[in-house]
Amino acid sequence: MRLMLLAVAAAFALNACGQKPAEAPTDGESVRQRAQEAQTARRRTGAELQERALNRVIRTVYLCNNGERLSVDFDNPREMATVRNSNGEAVDLFRERAADGLWYRASGYELRGEGVMARWTADSREPTDCRAVD
């Protein structure tokens, strides 16, 4: 009996010391609002996305009208791009100032474009139009 009284007294004491934890709302509108707030907190700003892109290497694959497939590593910190063609040959190009889009070149090679479209010029070959596929 004494043990039971001690347990009941302890339960009352513990209950008096702390507040009950707030229960999370379970109605549809409250749940939707909490989900939106959590998602908004995870979104990156445009400046954060730009900073992230400028400080890493980005790989893009282009399919060209002449049937060539180009894999391009844009090394933004070093301001250069490495272009690998279907035969596995690679050439390093250096970034040039462009009014719009991208422009990389080096001795007879040039990659120039805007958005998903680019024009690839390889030494001693006709220029070809290419489209980014990923």
Automatic annotation (TrEMBL):
Lineage: Bacteria, Pseudomonadati, Pseudomonadota, Alphaproteobacteria, Caulobacterales
Pfam families, A to Z: MliC (PF09864)
Secretion signal, residue range per the UniProt entry: 1-18
Organism, as annotated: Brevundimonas alba
Positions of region (Disordered): 21-47
Keywords noted in UniProt: Lipoprotein, Membrane, Palmitate, Signal
C-type lysozyme inhibitor domain span: 62-127
Protein name according to UniProt: Putative small lipoprotein YifL
